[in-house]
Design goal:
The chain is built from 15 helices and no strands. The chain is mainly alpha-helical. It folds into two domains: about 170 residues; about 100 residues. The chain starts with 8 loop residues before the first helix and ends with a helix.
Length: about 290
């Protein structure tokens, strides 16, 4: 689809961006029947516009791809944006890389770091060609633009190693890959849990007693305190059983963290924050609440 196929590209672009941001949020006041009908019609039109693009996604121009990226907003999309991601996945890598670099500083400056743009931009990180053209275009960023984007890239890199090349090229700091020895005097089940986590990322050995869930805390805290090398991104996963299925035990875990000597507690929080800042912030809140 060429720009010439749209008699008024600016009008088409404005409509796509507006409709992409018109998704009613669950926490907002309920819509009346007429407003809900209008909103559903708007979503349907948004999807139709994306479907039209997908028919010739490999031939999309930079301005068209930029419009798709700008149609993604910092909101809960309830799966609607999957169609946009599908279009972006088929775009020529050179066009995708350049368009994403053009859009990203302004998107983040206006809307913040959000999973909507992170998911879209990840198509660049997984393509060598798109990455090369992204970085070539990003060379023209001003210092304020680079400063705006880098914190988001740092978060994305913490969550996905595919961002390493872009993150490093734009001045991001590499994460340490140190490996602490597993203490020989640990109980056998603690050693087994550490070895399983390092070999496969398994966290089941950290939480052996479902009946007395709190009895697992010393083992989990000890595992969190160690440096696990290339598994550093997965360290917060050790807390998944707690955050996912036993949230009622979070206050008790916060109290256990608060009771640790400050150096131990800060090592644990730093290891978690390195990979998942929101989880570290949640733990700090729990510690404050327990004091």
């Amino acid at each position: 689809m060429s720009l010439a196929e749209h008699a008024d590209f600016d009008s088409w672009r404005e409509q796509l961006i507006r409709l992409g941001g018109s998704i009613h949020q669950d926490e907002a006041p309920p819509l009346d029947d007429e407003a809900d009908e209008d909103q559903q019609a708007g979503i349907q039109r948004y999807l139709e516009m994306l479907d039209e693009l997908e028919e010739n996604a490999g031939d999309l121009t930079g301005p068209q791809v930029e419009a798709v990226l700008l149609s993604l907003h910092a909101l809960d999309d309830y799966g609607i944006y999957e169609t946009a991601y599908g279009v972006l996945s088929q775009v020529d890598p050179e066009v995708l890389g350049k368009a994403t670099a053009h859009v990203l500083p302004g998107w983040i400056a206006e809307r913040g770091d959000h999973d909507a743009i992170a998911s879209a931009a990840s198509r660049v990180a997984y393509s060598e060609d798109a990455t090369r053209h992204f970085l070539g275009t990003a060379q023209s960023w001003s210092d304020p633009q680079r400063s705006t984007v880098l914190p988001a890239l740092s978060r994305w890199f913490r969550e996905d190693a595919a961002w390493e090349r872009i993150h490093s090229a734009l001045g991001g700091t590499a994460q340490p890959a140190a490996v602490d020895p597993i203490p020989a005097d640990w109980p056998a089940d603690w050693i087994t849990a550490a070895e399983a986590f390092r070999s496969s990322g398994s966290v089941t050995g950290a939480w052996l007693d479902e009946g007395d869930f709190e009895s697992n805390f010393p083992r989990v805290l000890a595992l969190l305190e160690l440096e696990h090398g290339q598994r550093w991104r997965e360290v917060p996963d050790l807390l998944n059983p707690l955050f996912v299925r036993r949230r009622n035990m979070l206050p008790a875990f916060g109290a256990a963290l608060a009771a640790l000597p400050a150096p131990r507690r800060e090592r644990i929080l730093a290891a978690i924050e390195r990979a998942r800042a929101d989880t570290a912030n949640a733990l700090r809140e729990l510690i404050t609440q327990s004091e």
